[in-house]
Design goal:
There is one protein chain. The chain is α/β, with parallel strands linked by helices and about 140 residues long. The protein has one domain (about 5-140): Diaminopimelate Epimerase, Chain A, domain 1. About 50% of the residues lie in helices and about 15% in strands. The protein has helices at about 5-20, 40-50, 80-100, 105-125, and strands at about 25-30, 60-65, 70-75, 140. Strands 3-2-1-4 form a 4-stranded mixed beta sheet, sandwiched between helices. Helix 1 (about 5-20) runs parallel beside helix 4 and helix 3 (about 80-100) runs antiparallel to helix 4. The radius of gyration is 14 Å and the shape is globular.
């Protein structure tokens, strides 16, 4: 398993903190192996499977990590992607890659969640009277 209980708690707390300031949603999916040619294909598949496209403002983001095959991807829905573009996602991927290569997965995931949260807050600020948590914050694990 990539994360121990303490690290899982840190990541979940980072997701909650990021989502408090935005209507956007962030999820993390972790599995052992990616069975697609490109991890972004798997991220897109999981995004659909978990209904992440159903947020009101199409502003959900999925972080995908396949630990043993050393793959990862970030998938942002149309609402956020239209605003931040490929340059932002590439920068976040480079940041995550840097941490993963150093064996600091938890720290890297938390930093990326924080930065994605800042962009979500910039473009989709939370309405304090109506900031429903549309998706669960827990880490999703796959069995592959």
């Amino acid at each position: 398993m990539l994360f121990n209980a303490e690290e899982e708690a840190r990541i979940t707390a980072a997701i909650r903190a990021a989502e408090q300031r935005t209507s956007g949603e962030i999820r993390l999916f972790v599995e052992d192996f990616c069975d697609r040619d490109h991890p972004v294909e798997r991220a897109a598949e999981l995004f659909q499977r978990f209904g992440m496209y159903n947020t009101r403002q199409r502003n959900a983001v999925l972080l995908y990590i396949a630990e043993k095959s050393h793959h990862f991807a970030i998938w942002g829905d149309a609402g956020i992607h239209e605003r931040v573009g490929l340059t932002f996602w590439e920068a976040e991927k480079q940041l995550l890659r840097h941490y993963l290569q150093r064996g600091e997965a938890c720290e890297g995931v938390c930093r990326v969640i924080e930065q994605i949260g800042e962009k979500l807050r910039e473009y989709f600020p939370a309405d304090p009277s109506q900031n429903e948590n549309e998706l669960p914050d827990d880490i999703l694990y796959g069995g592959r």
